[in-house]
Amino acid sequence: MDILRFIEDIKAHLKLTFDNVDGWFQKDKKTLNHQPSNGGWTIQQILEHIYLTNFYLLILIEKGSKKAMKNSLDLDLESEIKNYSFNKENFDKVGEHGAFEWIRPEHMEPKGELSLDEIRSLINQQYLQCVHYLEVMKNGEGLLYKTTMTVNDLGKINVYEYIYFLSLHARRHITQMQQNESEMIKN
Asked: Which residues form a coiled coil (predicted)?
């Protein structure tokens, strides 16, 4: 496994995804507040949900990165890198809206308590946090700690995979926002 390439690929995915999410904050109020006919969330609610989900995932990512760095003092990083293979297919479904049933916890549901500017600022900070963790674990250390991810039965995933998951989750909702906008334009 070329771990440096893997980390760079995650950084590129994050940048592309977060740039795309940021573009949604530029939409007009009508687009942002369009209630889809299926009763789903508005784009503004989806943006808040992305922030909330990132918030909770980043708690786990922060803990994981600290434990991974601590583990790098005692574990054989070279062996871990050599034996690691990334199962991209398992993760790709996470980024597809509607690919599987996803029951989110109530604390990740939008409450409308934050302004659009606050959400945008917080999401931008979250992007920088992700990049920071990738910089801290720049030599492959993120492989040295795993946490269970129940979504789509991913099982135990390492810190890099958690960051990739966070990016895929946002990508999933970009599709949802595109669907909302398309429906609004048609009506």
From this structure: none
